[in-house]
Amino acid sequence: MRVFVMNLRGKPIGTCSPRKARMLQEQKKVKVIKRNPFTIQLLYATGETTQETNLGIDLGAKHIGIAITTGEKVLGKAEIELRQDVKGNLETKKIYRRSRRNRKTRYRRSKFKYKTKCVYVEGKGKKKGGYRKISVSFTSNRPKGWSPPSIQSRIDNTFRWIDTFYSLLPNCKLHIEVGKFDVQKMMNPDIQGKEYQEGDTFGYHDVRYFVFARDHYTCQVCKKKGGILQTHHIMYRSHGGSNAASNLITVCTNCHTYENHQEGNILWKWMVEKKKTKRYKEGPFMNIFRRRVFDKYPEAHITYGSITTPKRKELQLEKTHYNDAIATTGIAAIKENTDHVLYIKQFRKKKRSLHEATARKGRKEKNTTSKRNEKNTKSVGSWHLNDKVRVFGKFGWITGFSGQSCYVKNIQDEYVTIPGKSYKQVNLSSLEFICHNNNWQFSIL
């Protein structure tokens, strides 16, 4: 991984090799302003000449591939792993809090803003006609642009790293792969610009008229034109179907009858014989993420996996997230490629739960003063969670404590153990301290 260089005014001017950065540091001509990714700033004036660079991003729900290229050279590669446990932790927290409310113990009140509305329901009461008045509470609508915390966390951290690398490169062009296929282009090869935001039904009075026009005003059962047409649900709404155009077909009134819906009749037979065509769909996260990317980076060059995969194969690169990012930049040939990859992994450093699932009934100590579980220990002496250490000739990070011992894992989430032993605990006295970390782990492999 090359070193990022800033000029005397703090503006990016390019990259240099680690050897050159080390020589400049020994001559006291530079200062280190960031260690991850490693960035130096010159202490003397230089020219303003910069080279054009390309930053390729391969987006994903769990892994993000990053590549930096210029000309026919690959200057740097990185792979970022995001947290996947946010949703599970929130579900656990909800269960704990609900349990405490039901037990009528000390708890944090719900944050929802409740509103009250009076309604009348059937039953005995003071009102005439057999109706009684009750109050119903309901929550206010979520704010515009709201996303579930698990998705919002991944979006925010992805944008953070894109902005970080983009700010370290001079004269940079951004290339982002946002999915496997451009589904709208598959349906309309000439689509471009704002047409992506208009959708299939743009210009039609409603979905019903769009379905008629798509089916050329022809009954899809008897294949006759003319007459009175209606829309029919391929999958009934009672079975989970929707009112989307993809779930509707055009049927004439002669075919769209109650009798034909019954088993053994013409419409029922057509439904059995004509299987619904499967449509390609991305995951919910990528569908939300793609829209956010379009709004956040309007100047970026957007591409899809169906385009970058053939390019990656032409470059004779194996399937990895950072190699996909290299192909995303549009590089024609590779004459120089770095062997080192910067791996970045998100780490949950603190457990902030105030209570555990098991109620402390029958214990002498109060819940507020009782000893916490050892797994929730944040530090022991001068050692803290997520400290980078060297043990038995290997690098790793402290992931938990157990008395005067700890657990150490490497960047691949594997335990670093004593050679020849199977147990996972490592004594604190055998650790060599490297540095403190926040909730990110960095390793160059």
**What is the C-alpha radius of gyration, as a whole number of Å?**
30 Å
- Principal-axes geometry comes out as extended
Tally of distinct domains = 3
β-strand amount:
25-35%
Largest sheet: 8 strands, mixed
The CATH superfamily of the largest domain appears as YqgF/RNase H-like domain
Q: Which architecture of the largest domain would the CATH scheme give at its second level?
A: 2-Layer Sandwich
Q: Are there runs of 5+ residues with pLDDT below 50, and where?
A: 124-128, 275-280
**Integer average pLDDT:** 80
Question: What is the fold named in CATH at topology level of the largest domain?
Answer: Nucleotidyltransferase, domain 5
Number of DSSP E strands? 23
Structural class given helices, strands, pairing?
Answer: alpha+beta
If you had to describe this structure to a student in words, what would you say it looks like?
This protein folds into 3 domains: 3-84 and 150-184 and 284-346, 2-Layer Sandwich (Nucleotidyltransferase, domain 5), CATH 3.30.420; 200-273, Orthogonal Bundle (DNA Binding (I), subunit A), CATH 1.10.30; 374-437, SH3 type barrels (Roll). The model is unreliable at 124-128 and 275-280 (pLDDT under 50). Helix 10 packs across helix 11 (321-328). The chain is built from 11 helices and 23 strands. Strands 5, 6, 7, 10, 13, 14, 15 and 23 form an 8-stranded mixed β-sheet that branches. Strands 21-20-19-18-22 form a 5-stranded antiparallel β-sheet, with no helix packed on it. 24% of the residues lie in helices and 27% in strands.
